[in-house]
Structures are given as C-alpha cells and as structure tokens.
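quick one before i forget lol
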Amino acid sequence: TVDPTGGLEDIEQRRIRALHSASFWDDATRIVRGIGFEQRLGFRIEPETESWLRRATRGGALRTVSSERLGEALLPLLENGIGPSVLRRAHELGAVKALGAQRLFTKTTLRALARVPGSLTALGEASCPTCRAVACLATMLLQQIAGAEVIVERLHLTRQIGRELRSAERFISLYPKGLRPARRPGDLWYQLHEASFGGIVGLWLASEDVEAKQALQRYWLELRHEKPDIAAGDLAVSGHRAGPHFGAALRGAMRAKLNDGLGREGQLAVAMGLLAEADQPYK
C-alpha cells in the first residue's frame, strides 16, 4: 500500500490532519470543511493541525474567502443535523466571527444552540433542511451576536433564508426576553400572524418558559392554518372602497372567530363594524 502522507493511520486514529502549516491559508474554506468532517464523522482535529487552524482564524484567513465560497462550504453543514455542533465548534475555534458574528457566543446563546434540535421537532420541521439552517443561524441573532443582514451578506444566503432571518430578527427584537403569549387563541394568532418560521423559531430559542413554547407550538402547528370565513369580496359588496383597511377588518374577523367561535355572519358583522369605525366613505 502506497500511503506517503499517513492517511490510513489518520483514519484508524479518527483524526483530521493538515499536511502543512499553510494549509488553511492556501484555502481557508478548509477551516469550515475541517470542522464539518470532524462533526459529521466523529473524528477530531489533531493538536498541531488545530493550532494551525486557530492561527489562521486569528489572522483573518476566512476573510480572504468570497461570501459565495464560504456559504457553499457552511450552508450544507447547517442544513444537516450537525449544524448546532458545527457552530459550537466554530465558536470554540474562534471562527464564528468570520461568519458574521460581532462577538463569540455567550452562555445564553450556547444554551439556545443546544435547543435547536428540540425546537425543530416541536415545530414539526425536523426534516426541513432550510428550517435547520434558519434555526441554527437564528441563535446568532440572540443578544445581538450578529445582525440578519450581516449574516446574509457574509454567507451569501438564499433569498428565502434571508427572509426567514429578518423575520427572526424582527420578532426577537419585539420580545427580547422571550414571548409573553396571549392567552386567547385569537389574540395569540394576532400576536404572531406576521411571523414566518424564522420568527417563530427565533422566539422559541429566545424563550425560556414552557408556556411560551407551548403557545409557539400551538400557533405554528395549528393556528397559522386557520382562515376567516369571509374575504375582501364580501366587504366590497357592502359598498366600502377596497384598501388596506380591508386587511385590518379581515384580521379583526379572524381574531373574533378564534376567540369567540363566530361563524360567517358574525365575522362579517365584526369586519363591517371595524370598517365603520375607520369611517370609510360609501360609494
């Protein structure tokens, strides 16, 4: 067997070893890929290689990599079930700042990172690769470790993931200490109806108490699928001019449906009352 670099022994010893000290400068994506191999295979970066990696990270090697290449190396790892352990290891090696973070994870955000798998399972999205990546990256938004736009730009993320992270950032900023959920279903629906998955999982990771998580679970699995039994056309027939106020009226009807169990006629009455309060002129 010809094995000039000792690769077979490395495999037997379950270790990841670079060939020389400049390896991570020659191609800095090896930092990310090395962490990925380590976490996916259950190997360990050997001590000398780790020292070279740390020096390259401190020296800014990852800043020499384009956002496209960095994202191509990292995103598949985050979409996989190893995403939380990859980010935790990047934190340990000082590499997380190069991913868009202003500073390293804190004890609180590391706890949130550990809750990512549970959040995906509870919200019914454990098999969704995009949701896995969004949940992992949302932990970087907690305690302003990073901003959504910075992460999107640094990792050259897709538009969909960008939208999800902006939703997460918005709702985390609205409830920085975690969600204090409304108790009635209609009020909870109204509280969360503008949140996409990113907003919901961001709040889940930011929230410590069980009640908040149960409310988020109920919204995502149940309430977000509810629709009012009336539409904008029903309001237009009444003689009101169409406009943004129609949306507000329909949301009010939806809220009343869930809170009070109103049927179609009751929902229509609520919507018409809201339009009348808005003092919209008749045709």
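fyi Strands lie at 15-16, 44-45.
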